[in-house]
Structure formats: C-alpha cells, structure tokens
Amino acid sequence: MSFNENVTLDTSQVSSGGRGGGAPGGMVVGGGIGGIIMLILAMVFGINPADITGGGQQPAPGQVQPGGEQGSAAFAECVTGADANTNIECRVIGSVNSVQAFWAGELPRFGKEWQPTQTVLYRGTTQSACGTASNQVGPFYCPLDKKVYIDASFFQILEQQFGSSDGPLAQEYIVAHEYGHALQDQLGLLGRAQRDPQGPESGAVRIELMADCLGGVWAHHASTVKDEDTGQPFLKPLTDQDIKDALSAASAVGDDRIQQKTQGRVRPENWTHGSAEARQRWFLQGFRTGDLNQCDTFAVASVN
Fold first, then answer.
1. Whole-model pTM?
2. Where are the domains of the chain?
C-alpha cells in the first residue's frame, strides 16, 4: 500500500530511541513477534518486567530515550508521502499517522475517544518502561508507558529469516497490529491475556488475534483516512498484491511457523500469538468487514 506522494508526515508522533547500531539478530524463541510480549503477565505474578528483558533504569515519563531525539529532529528526512514510499523509517511514521488518525475518527462512533500513542522508533536497543527493547524481542506495545516500540531493522529479520514479503503493507500491518494493542489497552481489554497466557485457545492468543483483526479494520479504511494538512488520503487504494503482502507477514509470525523454524517442531500448548492460518484469517476478518465489532475473538468457541 503506497502513500500519496504529497501528504505530510507528522514526526511528532514518533521519537527516536537512539540509532546505536546492532546488527539484525535472531528472535526470542517462543516470544512471538508483534505483541505485548509478556509484560502485563509479569506484573500479575509480581515479576519486574526489567528482569525479564534485561532493562535497567528507565527514563522519567515524557523524557526522550537515552541517545534519542524528538521526532522532527530525529527524522528530518521524513517530510512527505514520497519519503514514506522510499524510506522504511518514514513509512513507519506515515503508518503511525494513518492508524492514529483512523482510530481518532472511528472511536467516537462507539462513545470512546482515542488517546494519542507515541511510537519509539530505534535501531539496536533502547529502554522502555517494560525493559530493554531490541530486534530480538520484536515490535511490542508496552502497557506501562503506553508506547509502541519498533526497531527499524526488524523488517529485514522478518523478511530474511522468516520469509515474509518485503511489500509495504507487510510492514504497515505490523504497525497497525501494535496500535491494535494500544486500542485494547484503552478499552480495558488487555487484562484478558493474563487469565491463561499460553495455548491455542488462550486469552493471550485471543488478544493477539484481535489485534490482527483490528489491523485489518484499519486496512479496510486506510485509503480514506485523510491527512489534515492536505485533505488527501494518506494511502492509495489497496491492490491484490498489498493484501498478499500483509497475509505473508501474518503467516510469517504465526506460532507454528516460528516454532518450526526455531525449534524444529510445533507445540500448540506453548502458543501465545496463534497459528499462521489464524493470524491470516483474523486479519482478513477485519479487512473484509471493516467493523470493530467483528473482532471479538472472545465471542467464538475456537480462534485457531
């Protein structure tokens, strides 16, 4: 899904957590990709999330991450949709702009108001209130500081190590999924993941598949979400190839695909995100209906 070239990018919605290097690495086995990792689960059991991920002293609320900068200074090259079409960091920023604009316009229909959510876009490692963020953890939403964390090198890992397409919507889907978690947090739903954190029908899997569906809802409407500055939609209409790209990414981050790749066998009892097929199916559920109400993964007997 390509951006309209003349739309403006709002870099204030993104901050840099530093670009301190670090070659693309592997992924935490069993951790899944694109989730809330297991940080809210840790809080329930009295575990310091920093002990899980190696995090140390955290910045004060509102403080820029060590080595980081606020958006306009850190991402001066990201000005228009044309930049988002050629630069991965600018594409993430444009995706953040579009997703937030969509939910800000959509939620009032349900009597809710979207709370703006910052993304920390970094390379290598940075600190979150939930511990150390890195490309080994993958993109995640941290409920403790209400921010999304994305390592710009992650998409290379997703493509080269897990066989995802490198198409734009494959990357934009990841951003939309993480903002699905932010929405779940704002709606008071994230706690359901704590009830049973593993297994093919667990609360954790249902929360992740709901976020996939919410990403699909955004994709359904994305070509109509307008940039306030220009009055143009951020994104051009989807093509069949765009949908294939998103489904490729959804499949690549299925628990069964990850387990087979990293462990050589599939163990559904340890799933935290859902199968490749389920992740594709729930994204399509949101995309085909464009309806938030069709994403209730807790209303069905089986999600996989």
1. 0.84
2. 11-299
